[in-house]
Amino acid sequence: MKYLERGYLEKDELPSLPPAERIESKKPVVYIECPQPIPCSPCYESCRFDAIKMDNINDPPEVDYEKCTGCMACLRVCPGLAIFLVHIKDGKGYVTLQYEFLPWLEKGDKVRLYNRKGDHIGEGVITWALKPERNDRTQLVTVEVDKDLIFEVRAVRKG
Ligand code: SF4
Ligand code: SF4
Q: 7-10: which pairs have CB atoms within 8 A and are 24 or more residues apart?
């Protein structure tokens, strides 16, 4: 588990990618980056499409990409900010992720893009932002990015 010392995941520590035809289909698909055996299961419990497999509460979640509908239920409840939705539509890439900074983001905002390591890797535009409730500490947002970056962009910041 070198990622624990390093603090971020390298490519060879990530789960297999969803098939290209699923990423480019009508709906986005989930991609979960949670390899550590920890007692956590909100993602599994929230999925009513049986798309997340977890035999034991300590098992890392495994996604059945064909069953995933992109409903975002798991993304809303993950305490580890480890779940992303990815999509390619009309040649453009989209990543939906959790955002925990103020001010909250709005559709049309320009954002800086960061990878798992925290390196600045480009600029993007928010295309969807869930309006937070009064006590929310996490917002869901979708950012449009270069389609080749959907498995690289893992955080955004405004400006
Ligand atoms: S996005 Fe919805 S269908 Fe897909 S794994 Fe998450 S909860 Fe299940
Ligand atoms: S809810 Fe998030 S942190 Fe917990 S097991 Fe699922 S992906 Fe991992």
A: 8/116, 8/117, 8/118, 9/33, 9/35, 9/116
